[in-house]
């Protein structure tokens, strides 16, 4: 029989890294600020505590450490990196923070840019990077998810402030002509429902000179309709994952790990039930970190890779979802 050769460019996952601030904000401490309790937060979300950046930490600093850890695991020379994508909605420079991570790494041959898609940002960036690699444009990519939502949370709004925390995670991915470990993906947005979760600009009217007004910059705080976001997630995430399983001819029982955006333990459980994926396969670290936006998926992956839960060739189904509204799914093999 004629040997079938893999004659396309595929991708291989080579390393992971993460970083979370040391400062811990427990549920007990939040209840000193707003009218809530550890019992309420834990039972409704699964969250016990979250990390809050100190005054020196920001998306660039956190993303840099996460990326460096992924590069070390991959054992890459820094100058071999071609592409750095930073998924963030909270850059410390609105013109983009990815180039400052590139500079800190000394990755002088890489092109670096930000991608904004809130809690779907890492998933969208992962897809973007793999398409550049498979298209043959670049060979080595770092995909970072980093957010510092603590700067944009309304710390007087008990309906939202209990959910969020800060952190960063990263993956090192490279092109290969031996196999393809990125099995498939799907991505969606629905701007009609965007008002359920947003971080709008302040839009304060000011004037430059007589008769020439302008809107001054700056952002307000996170505004969220929790119930609508919850309903959106438990409906759309199983649908997009089921569709991905169908189009890639995969059945959910072949999945080793389900890694969802860490938003609420009840969302994770509900999606797992709908897809008939058992609880042991659904990774969660919500209890420790809460929702770190674009960082949740790579932080979770890095944790499970470093403690040997995720092993070479394990099949991972992942979904990111959130503001936009936006959501996406990817199916891939670790290694
Ligand atoms: O990346 C995506 C980010 N967003 C999300 O993932 C949000 C998804 N949604 C959720 O996770 C949930 O909707 C929440 C955890 C935000 C809220 O849980 P819920 O079960 O949907 O609560 P609810 O909004 O229906 O509120 C139930 C009650 C209300 O009181 P009344 O009106 O029934 O008397 C709220 O005022 O709970 C009250 N409540 C709280 N009580 C104590 C709301 N927040 C709190 C709180 N502590 N922190």
Walk me through the structure.
It is built from ten helices and 15 strands. It is of the alpha+beta class and 335 residues long. The chain has two domains: 170 residues, Peroxisomal Thiolase, Chain A, domain 1 (3-Layer(aba) Sandwich), CATH 3.40.47.10; 125 residues, Thiolase/Chalcone synthase (Peroxisomal Thiolase, Chain A, domain 1). Helix 3 crosses helix 4 and helix 7 runs parallel beside helix 8. The chain is globular and about 65 Å long. The model has no long low-confidence stretch (mean pLDDT 96). Oxa(dethia)-CoA binds next to helix 2, helix 6 and helix 7.
Key traits:
single chain; 335 residues; alpha+beta; Peroxisomal Thiolase, Chain A, domain 1; five-stranded mixed sheet; 10 helices; 30% helix; binds oxa(dethia)-CoA
What's the structural blueprint in terms of helices and strands?
Layout: E1 10-19, E2 24-26, H1 27-30, H2 38-45, E3 49-51, H3 59-74, E4 83-87, H4 98-105, E5 111-115, H5 121-134, E6 140-148, H6 158-161, E7 166-176, E8 182-189, E9 197-198, E10 204-209, E11 212-216, E12 223-224, H7 226-247, E13 257-260, H8 265-275, H9 286-289, H10 296-306, E14 315-322, E15 326-333
Parallel strand pairs: 4-5, 4-6, 13-14
Antiparallel strand pairs: 1-7, 2-3, 6-7, 8-15, 9-12, 10-11, 14-15
Helix pairs in contact: 3-4, 7-8
The structure holds oxa(dethia)-CoA.
Oxa(dethia)-CoA (UT7) is lined by residues 36, 40-41, 44-45, 119, 158-159, 162-163, 197, 224, 226-227, 229-230, 263-264, 291, 322.
């Amino acid at each position: 029989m004629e040997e079938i050769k893999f004659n396309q460019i595929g991708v291989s996952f080579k390393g992971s890294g993460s970083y979370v601030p040391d400062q811990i904000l427990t549920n007990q401490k939040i209840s000193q600020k707003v009218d809530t309790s550890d019992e309420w937060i834990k039972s409704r979300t699964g969250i016990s505590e979250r990390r809050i950046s100190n005054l020196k930490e920001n998306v660039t600093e956190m993303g840099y450490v996460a990326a460096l850890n992924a590069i070390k695991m991959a054992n890459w020379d820094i100058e071999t990196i071609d592409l750095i994508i930073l998924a963030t909605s909270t850059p410390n420079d609105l013109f983009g923070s990815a180039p400052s991570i590139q500079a800190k790494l000394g990755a002088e041959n890489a092109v670096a840019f930000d991608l904004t898609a809130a809690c779907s940002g890492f998933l969208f960036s992962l897809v973007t990077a793999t398409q550049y690699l498979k298209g043959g444009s670049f060979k080595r990519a770092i995909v970072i998810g980093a957010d510092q939502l603590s700067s944009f949370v309304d710390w007087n709004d008990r309906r939202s402030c209990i959910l969020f925390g800060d952190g960063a995670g990263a993956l090192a991915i490279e092109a290969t002509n031996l196999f393809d470990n990125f099995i498939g993906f799907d991505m969606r947005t629905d701007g009609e429902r965007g008002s359920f979760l947003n971080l709008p600009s302040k839009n304060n009217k000011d004037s430059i000179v007589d008769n020439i007004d302008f809107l001054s910059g700056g952002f307000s705080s996170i505004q969220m309709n929790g119930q609508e976001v919850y309903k959106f997630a438990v409906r759309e995430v199983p649908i997009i994952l089921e569709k991905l399983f169908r189009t890639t001819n995969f059945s959910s029982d072949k999945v080793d790990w389900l890694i969802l955006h860490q938003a609420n333990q009840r969302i994770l459980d509900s999606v797992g039930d709908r897809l008939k994926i058992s609880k042991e396969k659904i990774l969660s670290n919500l209890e420790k970190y809460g929702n770190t936006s674009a960082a949740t998926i790579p932080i979770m992956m890095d944790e499970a890779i470093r403690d040997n839960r995720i092993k070479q060739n394990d099949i991972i189904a992942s979904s990111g979802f959130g503001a936009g509204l936006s959501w996406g799914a990817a199916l891939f093999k670790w290694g």
